[in-house]
Amino acid sequence: MRKQHEESRRRKKENLLTQLRNVNAKIFPRFLIEEGRTELLNSESL
Q1: Cα 10 to Cα 3, 6, 7, 19, 25, distances in angstroms
Q2: The whole model's pTM is what?
């Protein structure tokens, strides 16, 4: 049960990251080039 809960939380976070990346792609296209840095920024802002 607990493992299932962690799995869903992880999936939720991944969805958020994807949404943020999509938003960033619209606003800051250059972030796509710096994907690694974008990943860091997104995870810090969560």
Answers
A1: 11, 6, 5, 14, 22
A2: 0.44
- Please tell me the distance from the alpha carbon of residue 27 to that of residue 9, in angstroms, as a whole number: 27
Half-sphere exposure of 38 (CA within 13 A, CB side): 19
Q: Is 29 left (phi over 0), alpha (psi -120 to 50) or beta?
A: alpha
Sequence ranges of the domains in the chain: 2-45
Query: How many angstroms separate the CA atoms of 44 and 25, rounded?
Result: 17
- pLDDT tens digits for range 19-36: 887 776 676 666 555 666
